[in-house]
Every structure is written in C-alpha cells, then in structure tokens.
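Q&A log
Question type: sequence-to-structure
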Amino acid sequence: MSQRKKIFSLILFCSLICPVNANEGSKSSGVKLERHFVFDTVPLNLEEITSASDRIFTGTCTNVEEIEEDLESKLPVFKYTFKITESIKGLEGKGVTFKQWKPTTKDAGYEIGKKYILFLYPNSERGLTSPVGFLQGQFEVEKKGLIRRKEVVRNKTSNRGLNRNLRTQKKVIIEDAYLNDYVENCSELGIPMRYQEFVKAVKYLVKRDK
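Response status: OK
Response body:
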C-alpha cells in the first residue's frame, strides 16, 4: 500500500470511529483522543490508556458475530459479547456487547472462551469502538506457573511503555511504592504482570482521574 493510501486509511478510520468528544483532552494526561486513533503506533503509558477509556473491564468472550453490513454503522463489523467478571470503569451488570469496524480487528480480535482486560474508547456516532491505542488497550489474561497457577496479563506489546510514554517519556506515578516499582519493572523488561497488581494499579489511576 502506498504512503498516500495509508494516510487516507488512517484519516478515514478516525472519521468513522472517533467519539463525539474526541477533541477534548483527557483530564489528567492532556492527550487528545483523536491522536490515539491517527497515531496508532505511539506508545501510551498506563495512565493515558486508563484516562482515555470509557469502559474498562475483565471478561470472557462468549460470542463473536461477523456482520457484513451493520445497520447502524453501514460498515462491516464484528460484534463481540463478553461475560464480565470484574468491572473497573464505566460499566455495571454481568455482560457487555460492543462492535468494532472489521479492519481494526486484524491481529486484535477476541477468541471465544478467552479472558481479557479491555480498555475501550467511547462509542463513536456510528456505534463503534476499539481498544485504546489499538493493541495497547487489549490485555490477555493467562495462567502461569506449574504448581501455583496465577493469573497474569499482557498486551500485544508485551506491556512495554506502560510505565512511561516512550515518545514523551511521561512516567506513571503510583503512591504505593511497591506497586509503582512493580509496574515499572515489568514494563521495562516487557514481561507479564500479575493480575491482582495490574488491576490494583488501574483502579488507583481510575480513582485519581475522577
């Protein structure tokens, strides 16, 4: 694909799924939402991902439906249904359904039966969403360890950049020194984080952002 076509595709994508309030900066990070859509390769730290999210939850994918022409958006989409096991921001209830424009699901779809932590943008005017920062806001929950199998989380970038935005160098600061060091070490090394510590860090950032 030519550079011109790539730029056009990014602009089209932005116009299709950017939320109505996309020009408003996040409360604490000052990063505008439309920048996340257009510059999808720019690493965001965990604070920026959390602040830009409309909904954050842990859940298991229970259904995937491919729709060639969605009635609301007039676009090809995937409709995902999740059973929520832990709601962290913006959701109540035991389940959630959302739709993503089909091109945004390449290498970023969800498998039935798998557990994820998702950081989702607000729905656009066309009723579509996607994980914040594309692959950065989609974390798989896995079990590690031979004897004491503990849940760990990681995104497609192996958690790199979660402690600091690799472009601006803005760092996440968590008052709990142990938790702050843990997030920083896992992020710098690019290794999975334990589920409990990761969620605790996110909840702290959600509460601070209010």
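Response note: Residues 3-209 form one domain.
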